[in-house]
């Protein structure tokens, strides 16, 4: 039987309300020992799922807060175990004392994600739903909220289950042919199996195609700021994130290492990557920085090429723009719009990139830049029904399922033995089981729940 865990479930800053949460066999008894309801009854004798008003006592027995408490009996709770909550004033000192009082009752500190891990182990959530809990907490845009909330309610699980069930139906046909292992699969049955595998293949391809969008919604679009030294890259990064994240000076070659920061622009969550200005240089450190800039360009899903509108455009600016456009959706950003513009020869590019003039100093043009980003990633700002693959673990499992199904289809054409084909289908089922967590190794779940916060 599992032990009883407790944690502060709310943020560590002073706030209106702060919650202590417990789960496990002694959860209700421990909460009852430190909290006395105003109605004179013991907490455990009040009805479950109700909020009860009363006094919370610290480890030395002195009152430390007027609070609300509630408890639930497993399996009718978040974790599926007995749970209790103490909803206090959100003072970090009160919460720390309350937690200490609970430890004195023999409960222990919860690990990060341990409540949700218990919910998963007790079958209250599958793995994609548990991951959605973490995604929801981390969501930075309305689109990310909708995607995570849909996944939490089981939308991705249902989509995967439909593929899984289709493959299970096929297994019945295999058992019929396995009874006669030396005979070829009769053509009628082979057609049925082929149709089932093709359908699963189509569904898995469609599912995998959701991953780009899902990962951009959940984790942000990797967006590189590129341009020659002093173009204003770090200034733009700072203007977009709203604080002085990167060092800005008038010395060309200020940024050496890549600098990352998140922002929301045009409703799209971006992972901005500021880079060293690209130029030939004798400085060994700067040269490594320039190499990193070029490497970052290759990882980008969106590139902002910055041209200083107060300086003449050079050949290297045009070369960088062309390189970027060949690599990913690119926006040409004319910087320092507040200064007087240098004259620029007409640009002859086909196609022309979308362009915008901005000033990091005044904020002019940033709204227009947001519109251009939203045009490039309309579906990333729009949210989803929650049935997108949203992380690499999910995509990896779906890819393995697809590979197994494709192998099965190829084998069928080659006329292999039924048991080889059966192995392919079983491998596909096992990969889908990993995706939802119905069939997954302990060490992998441990890694997944480590990313959660304490108290979740
Ligand atoms: N105060 C508080 N707020 C919270 C949570 C919590 O645990 N406490 N949650 C958690 O992190 C989330 C809500 N999720 C929850 C999911 C299931 C149950 C639950 O008790 N389910 C039971 C009973 C349902 C019912 O009363 O109808 C069940 O499913 O059987 C509670 C919270 C977000 N807000
Ligand atoms: N007036 C004005 N000056 C700007 C603007 N943006 C940047 N600057 C100035 O241009 C100079 C270079 O800015 P940075 O943001 O450091 O340029 P960078 O592209 O990051 O340069 P490197 O890191 O050296 O590649 C600094 O003196 C900035 O203050 C702007 O919008 N208006
Ligand atoms: Mg810089």
Question: Could you walk me through the main structural features you see in this protein, from its secondary elements to its overall organization?
Answer:
The protein is α/β, with parallel strands linked by helices. It folds into 3 domains: 5-110, 2-Layer Sandwich (Gyrase A, domain 2), CATH 3.30.1360.120; 134-210 and 387-449, Four Helix Bundle (Hemerythrin (Met), subunit A) (Up-down Bundle), CATH 1.20.120.430; 217-376, Rossmann fold (3-Layer(aba) Sandwich), CATH 3.40.50. Helices cover 46% and strands 17% of the residues. It has helices at residues 27-34, 92-103, 114-121, 127-138, 142-152, 155-178, 187-208, 211-219, 233-241, 284-299, 315-327, 366-376, 378-381, 392-414, 418-436, 442-450; strands at 5-8, 15-23, 35-37, 52-57, 63-72, 83-90, 108-109, 221-227, 259-265, 268-274, 302-308, 330-335, 355-357. The protein has a 7-stranded mixed β-sheet with strand order 3-4-5-6-2-1-7. A 6-stranded mixed β-sheet has the order 9-10-8-11-12-13, with helices on both faces. A hairpin with a 6-residue loop joins strand 1 (5-8) and strand 2 (15-23). Helix 4 (127-138) runs antiparallel to helix 5 (142-152), helix 6 (155-178) runs antiparallel to helix 15 and helix 14 packs antiparallel against helix 15 (418-436). The longest helix is centred in the middle third of the chain and has 24 residues, at 155-178. The chain is flat, with a radius of gyration of 29 Å. It starts with a strand and ends in a 6-residue tail after the last helix. The chain binds ligand FFO, guanosine-5'-triphosphate (GTP) and magnesium ion. Guanosine-5'-triphosphate binds at residues 227, 229-235, 248-250, 252-255, 276-277, 335-336, 338-339, 359-361.
């Amino acid at each position: 039987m599992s032990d009883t865990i407790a944690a502060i479930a709310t943020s560590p800053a002073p706030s209106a309300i702060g919650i202590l949460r417990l789960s496990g066999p002694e959860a209700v008894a421990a909460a009852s020992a430190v909290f006395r309801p105003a109605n004179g009854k013991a907490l455990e004798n009040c009805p479950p799922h109700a909020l009860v008003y009363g006094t919370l006592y610290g480890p030395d027995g002195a009152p430390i807060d007027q609070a609300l408490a509630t408890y639930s009996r497993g399996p009718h709770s978040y974790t599926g175990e007995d749970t209790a909550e103490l909803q206090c004033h959100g003072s970090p000192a009160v919460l720390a004392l309350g937690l200490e009082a609970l430890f004195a009752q023999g409960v222990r500190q919860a690990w990060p994600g341990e409540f949700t891990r218990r919910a998963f182990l007790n079958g209250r959530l599958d793995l994609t739903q548990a991951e959605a809990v973490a995604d929801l907490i981390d969501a930075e845009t309305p689109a990310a909220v909708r995607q995570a909330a849909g996944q939490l309610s089981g939308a991705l699980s249902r989509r995967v289950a439909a593929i899984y069930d289709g493959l299970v139906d096929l297994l019945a046909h295999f058992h019929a042919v396995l009874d006669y292992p030396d005979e070829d699969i009769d053509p009628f049955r082979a057609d049925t199996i082929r149709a089932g595998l093709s359908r699963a293949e189509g569904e898995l391809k469609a599912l995998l195609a959701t991953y780009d969008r899902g990962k951009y919604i959940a984790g942000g679009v990797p967006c590189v700021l590129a341009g020659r030294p002093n173009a204003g890259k770090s200034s733009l990064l700072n203007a977009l994130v709203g604080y002085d994240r990167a060092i800005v000076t008038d010395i060309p070659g200020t940024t050496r290492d890549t600098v990352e920061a998140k922002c929301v622009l045009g409703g799209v969550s971006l992972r901005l990557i500021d880079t060293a200005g690209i130029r030939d240089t004798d400085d060994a450190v700067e040269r490594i920085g320039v190499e990193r800039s070029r490497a970052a360009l290759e990882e980008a899903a969106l590139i902002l090429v910055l041209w200083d509108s107060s300086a003449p455009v050079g050949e290297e600016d045009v070369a960088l723009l062309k390189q970027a456009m060949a690599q990913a959706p690119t926006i040409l950003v004319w910087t320092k719009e507040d200064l007087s513009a240098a004259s620029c020869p007409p640009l002859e590019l086909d196609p022309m990139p979308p362009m915008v003039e901005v000033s990091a100093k005044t904020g002019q043009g940033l709204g227009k830049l947001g519109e251009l980003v939203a045009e490039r990633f309309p579906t990333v700002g729009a949210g989803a029904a929650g049935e997108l693959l949203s992380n690499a673990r999910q995509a990896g499992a779906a890819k393995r399922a697809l590979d197994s199904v494709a192998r099965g289809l190829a084998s069928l054409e080659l006329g292999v033995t039924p048991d080889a084909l059966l192995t392919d289908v079983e491998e596909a089922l096992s990969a889908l089981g990993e995706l939802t967590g119905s069939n997954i190794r302990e060490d992998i779940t441990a890694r997944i729940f480590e990313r959660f916060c304490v108290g979740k």
